[in-house]
Design brief:
Blueprint: E1 4-10, E2 19-24, E3 27-31, E4 47-49, H1 53-57, E5 62-67, H2 72-75, H3 78-82, E6 89-91, H4 93-106, E7 113-115, E8 120-124, E9 127-133, E10 142-148, E11 151-155, H5 174-183, E12 185-191, H6 208-217, E13 222-227, H7 231-243, E14 247-250, H8 253-264, E15 288-294, H9 297-307, E16 321-324, H10 333-345, E17 350-352, H11 365-375, E18 379-383, H12 387-399, E19 416-419, E20 422-425, E21 435-437, H13 443-459, E22 461-469, E23 475-484, H14 493-512, H15 518-537, E24 542-550
């Protein structure tokens, strides 16, 4: 019988950075490659991506990577992965079109991008794979079922159940899901982010009924913010502007490009007479809708710039009607609060859609139950969410009759091994370390740089300078000790003196033992000084020993 191993390289006990791996014997299938945004304390970090080490070490076994849709939490790390290993990509038509353009900008060539139908059956790497359509905020979204002789491994992707959804590119086919369930599912991986919400998500994901009265009451310009990847919500805003006979200006070039992709795919077209181009737009225009879009905290920073009169297109006026149609999510709280403060300082009034009133397009309790009923898996693995979400999802499964031994809550890197249709072990772990990105091209180095910044911001820095004779290596100047952000020098003279003694002792010992080498001695001194400072101060600062060899 096939041996099956399932684990995550990201996406467990966190929001974003999704990457899941299914191994069927020697074949490796990757699902998703996303990023997550940093906590406010991670200074200089733009975003965080998974650790690809395991995939790079086993690249010859990888049969492909599946990308279910084009949201950052499932696709944005893919270019970084493809720069390391060239593997085939399987995704929907719209996502493929967007990805092709992204890889071209990144200079990544010769990657095979396979456009999959939302409902498909194919053989990849000798393994049968099915896709099934799911409803989400992004068109062409799908789930994946990987066939093994132990049963299907099913990954739902991100989804909701919406019976009023009529557009083909968003439609979910429950019959397809049921058919997979009847064939036999060994394990179901289902997302957890919306598990705190009772009932079904639909129709609470729709915003038209909430913002239409605001549109009707406004006699001036409307500024409305929305995450650029919430395409379903953006189309709602466009349709409402059309109904109110208002023209619309898209503030962000990214959303203009995204709408062009939609038009090319014949999924949606904005009437040309509604559009206001960059050249045509004037900040003096009234009775228009300005749609401000962006990703994560950058959306709120753009709105802050508008309030501060620092934006190149739009300058805030007290007569503006401001609608925040993108509820605050984890990691954006500080920037969202700053935005509101600046707008209120300018005398503005904001209509904010609460995350409790407007739900993101992720499954609530009844949506998750429906997946369990349709797929009827032997084992259930909650994915995508913080620990509380994963455990609440596990409890939900127990509430519909699943025993604890059939529910597997994993950590990133923890491997669930299945043999003969039975979970054999979860003991094996892969050691993982987040990759921190600061937006620069040389991303593999920036992780080290960003960690140094974090140390500097919390524990400070100490520089120890010593001058030695070039020939004899005898200390002739110093040690001179300088520190910033660690201790107040006048209150810690004994520490400074001892650090100097350690530095000098390391040099003298190496000379006496006839093994002096500048770089090696500095490394020894650094290690000893770090240990001493940790003992004395409880901090681990950046220690920079400097030995200058002087030719007298």
């Amino acid at each position: 019988m096939d041996q099956v191993r399932i684990f995550a390289l990201g996406g467990l006990d966190e929001n974003g950075k999704n990457m899941y791996v299914v191994e069927v014997n020697e074949a490796i299938f990757i699902i998703e490659a996303g990023l997550k945004y940093p906590d406010t304390g991670q200074l200089g970090v733009e975003f965080i991506i998974p650790d690809f080490s395991y995939l790079i070490e086993n690249k010859d076994r990888i049969k492909g990577i599946f990308i279910t849709h084009a949201h950052d939490d499932v696709i944005a790390a893919l270019p970084y992965l493809l720069k390391q290993i060239n593997i085939p990509v399987y995704t929907g038509a719209l996502t493929a079109s967007i990805l092709h353009e992204t890889l071209k900008k990144e200079g990544i060539k010769d990657v095979k991008i396979h456009r999959m139908k939302r409902t498909s059956r194919q053989v990849i790497g000798g393994v049968k794979v099915r896709t099934f359509p799911m409803t989400h905020a992004f068109p062409d979204n799908f789930g994946i079922a990987i066939n093994t002789d132990q049963g299907y491994i099913v990954y739902t992707g991100e989804f909701i159940v919406d019976y009023d959804m009529l557009q083909e590119e968003y439609l979910c086919d429950l019959n397809e899901l049921s058919d997979i369930g009847k064939k036999g599912v060994l394990c179901l991986l289902s997302e957890s982010q919306g598990v705190e919400q009772s009932g079904h998500t639909a129709p609470r994901h729709r915003i038209t009924s909430l913002i239409e009265p605001i549109f009707e009451a406004s006699t001036s310009r409307i500024l409305i913010s929305c995450y650029s990847q919430s395409l379903f919500r953006i189309i709602e805003i466009i349709e409402l502007a059309k109904k109110q006979n208002r023209r619309i200006f898209f503030h962000d070039k990214g959303i203009r490009d995204l709408l062009k992709h939609l038009e090319t795919m014949k999924y949606y077209r904005v009437p040309k007479d509604m559009l206001i181009s960059e050249k045509e737009f004037s900040d003096d225009m009234e009775d228009v809708v300005v749609l401000v879009s962006g990703i994560g905290k950058n959306l709120f920073r753009t709105m802050t710039n508008i309030a501060n009169h620092e934006d190149k297109y739009v300058s805030f006026r007290t007569s503006d009607t401001i609608i925040v149609a993108s509820p605050i999510v984890s990691g954006t709280e500080l920037d969202a609060n700053n935005m509101e403060n600046e707008i209120y300082k300018e005398g503005g009034k904001i209509f904010t859609l609460s995350s409790k009133t407007v739900l993101s397009m992720h499954p609530s309790v009844e949506d998750l139950k429906m997946m369990l009923y349709l797929f009827r898996p032997k084992y259930y693995i909650p994915v995508k969410g913080e620990s509380r979400h994963l455990f609440m999802n596990a409890n939900l499964a127990m509430s519909v009759g699943y025993s604890a031994d059939r529910i597997v809550v994993l950590e990133n890197g923890q491997i669930a091994t299945f043999e003969n249709k039975v979970l054999k072990s979860v003991a094996e772990h892969i050691e993982l370390e987040d990759t921190l990105i600061d937006g620069k091209e040389n991303w593999d180095v920036t992780g080290v740089v960003l960690k140094d910044r974090e140390v500097l911001s919390t524990d400070g820095v100490m520089i120890i300078g010593v001058g030695v004779n070039f020939k004899t290596k005898k200390v002739i100047n110093g040690p001179d000790v300088q520190t910033r952000g660690l201790i107040y020098l006048k209150d810690a003279e004994h520490i400074i003196k001892e650090v100097g003694n350690i530095m000098e002792e390391c040099i003298n010992t190496a000379v006496e033992e006839k093994r002096y080498e500048n770089l090696t001695v500095r490394g020894e001194a650094r290690d000893k000084i770090v240990r001493y400072l940790l003992k004395e101060t409880g901090k681990r600062p950046m220690v920079l020993p400097v030995i200058i060899e002087i030719n007298e």
